[in-house]
Amino acid sequence: MKIWLTMLVAAVSLNLTANDLELDHSLAYKLTESLTVEVGARIAGSSADERAVVWAEKNFAALGYDKVWREPFKMPFWQRGAASLTVSAPFQQSFVVSALGGSIATPALGIDSNVIMFASLAELKKADPSQVKGKIVFINKSMQKDKEGNFYSEVVGARSQGAIEAAKLGAKAIIIRSVGTSLNRFAHTGIMRYSDKVARIPAAAISVPDAIQLEKMLALQPNLTLRLTMQNKLPGTVTSHNVIAEITGRTKPEEIVLISAHLDSWDQGTGALDDAAGVGLVMAVGALIKQQGQPERTIRVVLFGNEEGGLLGAKAYAAKHANNLHNHVFASESDFGADRIWRLDSGVGKNSLAFIAELQKKLAHLDISLGNNDAYGGPDVSVLKALGVPVVTLLQDGTDYFDYHHTANDTFDKVNPDALEQNLSAWLITTKAVANSDIDLRK
Ligand code: ZN
Ligand code: ZN
Asked: How far is the CA of 153 from the centre of ligand 2 (A)?
């Protein structure tokens, strides 16, 4: 055990060389800029998504990757249409509204109805159908800021499940307070779900200031009516792609160290924090490692398609590579904005915790501490983790992430180059440590 540990320490130590000083540590930032400026918003299945795929293939090749290819998968395409939400007399005003991803349209003239407010999805579930039938449900649950983004999971149920629960009680439509932490007047979109067992009703989010406004109006006038119009389209099944590139391993080419991000974004901003920064980061990692010589194991960079619609690219990847997942020795994803990394979490076998502890020592100068062994590796990578692939998560500071998440305000100017450079350093150290070792992280 002791000898084994010493060897590991030596392997990790080798990764920090004088070459590190010569690397272009702004490469991740430049790639993030390129994707957001040259492609911009790229909702899965759209022509912009296809342009992003071509952008990725072209840039992987230019960066010197040994192999570049795309893998197709089928997906239902959703297109946003114009949306409006207005309130009747005595407070005739309009709200900032955004359709939730996947929502059906309203009738052309909209839905006019009384509104009933709930503090949370849990409160809606307890409601009497007679209170809800024929109305527009409004879920007004606020979200708090926190470094780990823990409040997201408490609030996002209203977005993903709200239409199902409201329809069960006979509602005509649902609007939610945006799943976001900013008082800026932007509505946050995101995927929502339907059930085959209940009616499909239109679903939208209003900005946080508008939710506060609507609550005040309802306190004065409980009988006010809202008119919601949305012209979304569901054109049917289309093809999207995962884009994959590799730096071939020198001595163990069959062993895959998978690093990833998702290429698609929502359609309102330019998907800079979510997830162009992650794309730029992992593309730069492989390229910069190759600049220092081929790694022992193969580094595979996967840019997953259609994460936002429900991890569809990740599921397609897992199905296509099902017979080779035993050769995936490691997986991780960057998909939590572009702020500094502050903690290393792992999802590895017990015998590998010493390796993770040594890795954290190599990251300590970047102010990265050691966390727990409950990591899921990132949204797309969680699909692989569930199939036994070992993962780590380099946790980014998510305090401000949900100010911009899925809004028109998620744009390149929000990316801090110094923070992204710190991310790049951490990813280089981590990826090299695994790619140049023999460690079996499953054990
Ligand atoms: Zn994302
Ligand atoms: Zn997202």
From this structure: 13
Domain edges within the chain: 5-78+236-435, 81-231
Architecture of domain 81-231: 3-Layer(bba) Sandwich (3.50)
Residue 15: pLDDT band (50, 70, 90) is very low
pLDDT per position as a tens digit, 398-417: 999 999 999 999 999 999 99
State the residue for tokens 């054990």.
443
Residues 6 or more apart whose Cβ sits within 8 Å of residue 3: none
Nearest listed ligand to the Cα of residue 266: 2
Q: What is the CA radius of gyration of the chain?
A: 23
User: Counting ligands in written order, which one lies closest to the CA of residue 279?
Assistant: 1
Residue 345 CA to ligand 1 center (angstroms) comes to: 19
* CB-CB neighbours of 37 under 10 Å: 12
**Residue 307 annotated among the catalytic residues of the structure:** yes
Which residues place a Cβ less than 5 A from the ion ligand 2? 274
> How many residues would you count in the chain?
443
Q: Does CATH number 3.40.630.10 belong to domain 5-78+236-435?
A: yes
Same fold, 5-78+236-435 and 81-231: no
What is the tens place of the pLDDT at every residue in 172-189?
Answer: 999 999 999 999 999 999
Looking at the CA of 335, name the nearest ligand: 1
Distance between Cα 273 and ligand 1 center (Å): 8
Name the β-bridge partners of 138.
117, 175
